[in-house]
Amino acid sequence: MSVVGECIAAFLFGSVVGLLVQRSRFCNTAALRDAILFKTYRNTKALLVAMMILTMGFTTFLTFGDGNPMHFDVGLNQVAGLFLFGIGMVLAGACTVSTWVKSGEGNVGAMWALLFTFVGMFLFSLLWSANYWPPAPASMTGEPNLETLQLGYSNAATLQEKYGIPAVVFGIGQTLVLLAIYRAILRRERHGDSG
Fold first, then answer.
1. Phi, psi (5° rounding) for residue 150?
2. How many CA atoms lie within 13 A of 28 on its CB side?
3. Can you tell me where the transmembrane regions are (predicted)?
4. Using the 8-state DSSP alphabet, how is residue 94 labeled?
5. List of residues 6+ apart from 183 with CB closer than 8 A
6. CA 90 remoteness from chain centre
């Protein structure tokens, strides 16, 4: 596919996804917040279905296609960053995706959240290039490295590369776990409605 074709496909895909997210009011933050605080699971079920579709699609593509996934080592820096990002999403009242949607609808608070997302990414890019912790070349090896607080990485691609287990096997396993959670939510909703 040419560069122009890729741009057109990306534009069409992004437009359809953006329309679906805007019309459905889908939000990753709400998926977890509403389930925990309000015991409502509309967004949670949507998130689980999306994760099942993406997991099967991604791992099938890795197994039978020319997938070239990025590898990220998991370490204490990722845990701290994800924790801070999660706090920011809760304070903003939306995930990054729904912040884009709300900004497009004219929500000033979402615009501020989006602006400071960009500011934070810019500041992090300066920190990354000047003083990345832990030092990237020495620690980002894919293997556990406790001196640099890196745990290595393990995903469907590494199972396939290291052990010869097709990535789709991992995808099926993860999808079954997500399906079990989805079914447990449906049971909980049925018992809540009848009780």
1. -105, 135
2. 12
3. 46-64, 79-101, 108-130, 163-182
4. S
5. none
6. 16
Token pair for residue 70?
């990025």
In the chain, where the domains are located:
1-68+155-195, 70-151
3-state secondary structure of 71: coil
Q: Tokens in use for 39?
A: 């015991």
Per-residue pLDDT tens digits for 59-73 = 888 888 765 566 666
d(CA 92, CA 194): 35
Query: What is the Cα–Cα distance from 181 to 184, expressed in whole angstroms?
Result: 5
Q: What is the pLDDT of residue 138?
A: 60
3-state DSSP call for residue 75? strand
Closest C-alpha to 25, from 42, 3, 6: 42
Q: Which residue has the higher pLDDT, 179 or 58?
A: 179
Cβ–Cβ < 8 Å for 124, 116:
no
Separation between Cα atoms, residue 160 and residue 75, nearest integer Å: 22
Select from 144, 138, 145 the least CA-distant residue to 158. 144
